[in-house]
Amino acid sequence: MNRERPASLAAGLAALAGLACGDGVSTSADRAEGAPVSALTRNQALHIPMRDGVRIAVDVWLPAGIQPGDRLPAMMRATRYWRARGEVGVPLEETSNFAEAERWNRAGYALVLVDGRGSGASFGIRRFELAEDEVTDYGEVADWIADQPWSNGRVGAYGVSYAGNTAEMLAVNRNPAVKAIAPLFNDFDNFGHLIFPGGVLTVGFLEDWSNRTRMQDLNDICGLSDAIGAACDEVRSRVTGVKPVDADVDGSLLAAAVAEHQANTVPFEAALEYEFRDDPFGPYGETNVGHRRSPSGHLPQIDESGAAMFVRVGWQDAGTVNGTLGRYNTISNPQQVFIGPWDHGARNDTDPFKADDTPVAPDADARFEELVAFFDAHLKEDGSGETPTEIHYYTLGADRWTRTETWPPEGFDDVTWYFGEGGTLSTEAPASEAGGDPYTVDFTATTGTRNRWYTNGGGGDVVYGDRRAEDEKLLTYTSAPLPVDTEVTGHPVVTVHLASTETDGAFIVYLEDVAPDGTVRYITEGQLRGVMRGVTDDPPLYRKYGPHRSESRADALPLVPGEVAELSFDLWATSVLFRAGHRIRIALAGADADTFLRYPRDGNVPEWTVQRNAIHASRMVLPMRPANPNR
Questions:
Q1: Catalytic residue among 261, 291, 344, 378
Q2: Average of pLDDT values for 469-483?
């Protein structure tokens, strides 16, 4: 895939900062491993030994002027993207972690940044991401924090993306010190909502992410510079790689840690050989990784922890919104949820009805204040200890926020839209027992590289643009102009009856808005790999909003060429206002060239016949209601 390359050293460093999720330079003296951190030192970097002897690197930031006897809560952010960068000739106040630490310190918190096992300056190997040993480490780090002389015994955890997952997985340890967590834009079900949505591999995202994290694990500054499109010599003049611990005066500790990382599983290589949730994953033959590496696979423990949650997620950030809503309706933890028009990390506004450069709202300062207020309630001595269980969601196209305590929200009717002759879409069921549309899969079809899947790899804006040209490559069904403003909020469910010439394929369905001038705007999508179509009656691990599948090899159900099959699945949740005069469009594709692996993998080109008749009525169910401007 082509990438824009940063044109300057500053751009390269900014990209590194995005990958590292924060950094810092120590000004303290050398420390013994795991010793208590002095209450008089602003920033220190040290190793904490774990139960098996593996040493985990942490950076500790304490407020300026803290005195012996002072007690304060701690915020913990654990990452696999370098907790901090080693920087050349940069004063403490100019390191990129300083601003993050200063904010938390001024709010009355210590900040502890952690390199996950097998990454950064930590020792160990990564058999797969968020393996059990890594998760247990975080519990031991929280114990260590609670035992420090400056600690009030209360720990919170927060983070965006991977760090959001580490925050949620920390609760698996059920540590009594961990009172509250903020999983922000995290991948609650990594297999189902990011890597293999509907069983379809997001090869575009994963190859790029895997390459960058491999370079970080090996502390290869030139390899990483190339991966992010920066000049190595320029970056190396300012950045040495991951920040070593203070005791590592000759670099030998970091070199030894990095040498261990050589044995890490490379996710992209492993994923190419991995198809079903229960398949062996990677060179260590780990099984059931599809559940083990995600919070969704550990919900009883998270529930038992009782940790309060503050959650942010975007409508068009991979499939993370479905994870947020699934969690909300499954466990009893207090959960305050915000679903906005945001990319991964809320760096950009993604409402397709607004200009691409629309500023994010609320801005970063306001969002931080909300986060502090949440943690104050649970970690400060005078905190209320209460968090409301509620969802605040934004409606695309309406520029409106709504609060609800139930999901799906009340007041919507399920309206069935049927595929019709001539590419029409209507609420009238087909009467004829005959009728179908041929379609040959176009493998050049694409949503580009600024879509909901790529944003999860670093927080880039989500811009689909006008889809009318791409829709020429797809099979589309479009409604008549809507007579009134109409809101769709919830989980669209599509049922497609078709016959294919192949035993497998990727089946992608888009929901779009067609304006009176012909502009086509992407709203949401869903996908299903053909062999994953079998539905199970086994209870899901968390609340789902469409047909449930085990995604296990034993339940694989290949298509029979020439036979009509039913493919029914939900699209990623959305809330959108279709204006009067606009039309609803459903577009079917068999490929997204820049995003998903090609199916079938043998290179054959499927030919479909999509049924739209009284016997096999292909359709989509949309949760709808007439818009109320006063609502």
A1: 344
A2: 99
**What span, in angstroms and rounded, lies between the C-alpha atoms of 41 and 64?**
8
Please report whether residue 469 resides in a domain: yes
> If DSSP codes are grouped into helix, strand and coil, which group holds residue 266?
coil
8-state DSSP, 278: T
Contact 422, 310 (CB under 8 A): no
Q: Does residue 594 carry a catalytic annotation?
A: no
CB of 28 within 8 A of CB of 246?
Answer: yes
Q: Which residue has the higher pLDDT, 629 or 257?
A: 257
The stretch 163-175 carries a mean pLDDT of: 99
Is position 96 annotated as part of the catalytic site? no
pLDDT tens across 523-533, in order?
999 999 999 99
CB contact at 8 A, 311 and 331: no
- Residue 536: is its pLDDT beyond 50? yes
Q: Give the per-residue pLDDT at 13.
A: 55
Q: What pLDDT was estimated at residue 2? A: 36
SS3 category, 177: coil
Q: Which domain covers residue 222, as residue numbers? A: 9-156+182-290
271 three-class SS: helix
Size (the chain), residues: 631
Taking a C-beta distance cutoff of 8 angstroms, is the pair 47, 114 a contact? no
* 570 belongs to the catalytic site: no
Helices (H) and strands (E) in the chain, counts: 15, 25
Confidence class for position 92, pLDDT limits 50, 70, 90: confident
Question: In this model, does residue 96 exceed pLDDT 90?
Answer: no
The pLDDT value given to residue 228? 81
Question: Does residue 98 belong to any structural domain of this protein?
Answer: yes
Backbone angles phi, psi at 366, to 5 degrees: -65, -40
pLDDT at 16: 59
Q: What does the pLDDT read at residue 37?
A: 58
pTM: 0.94
Domain tally, the chain:
2
Please tell me the distance from the alpha carbon of residue 320 to that of residue 309, in angstroms, as a whole number: 16
3-state secondary structure of 496: strand
Domain containing residue 451: CATH number: 2.60.120.260
CA atoms within 13 Å, Cβ hemisphere of 531 = 16
Cα separation of 130 and 249, whole Å?
30
Q: What is the DSSP letter of 322?
A: H
Answer whether residue 243 is part of any domain.
Answer: yes
Q: Which one from 317, 343, 513, 592 is the annotated catalytic residue? A: 317
Catalytic entry in 38, 151, 161, 575: 161
Residues 6+ apart with CB under 8 A from 66: 39, 40, 72, 150
Q: Among 290, 322, 346, where does a domain finish?
A: 290
pLDDT tens per residue across span 446-469: 999 999 999 998 879 999 999 999
b or e along 94-116 (b: 16 or more beta carbons within 10 Å of the residue's beta carbon)?
Answer: ebbbbebbebbbebebbbbbbbb
Q: Look at residue 162 and tell me if it is in a domain.
A: no
Give the Cβ contact number of residue 431 at 10 Å. 8
Helix, strand or coil for residue 486?
strand
DSSP symbol at 91: -
Lateral strand order in the sheet of 475-478: 475-478, 583-589, 506-514, 520-529
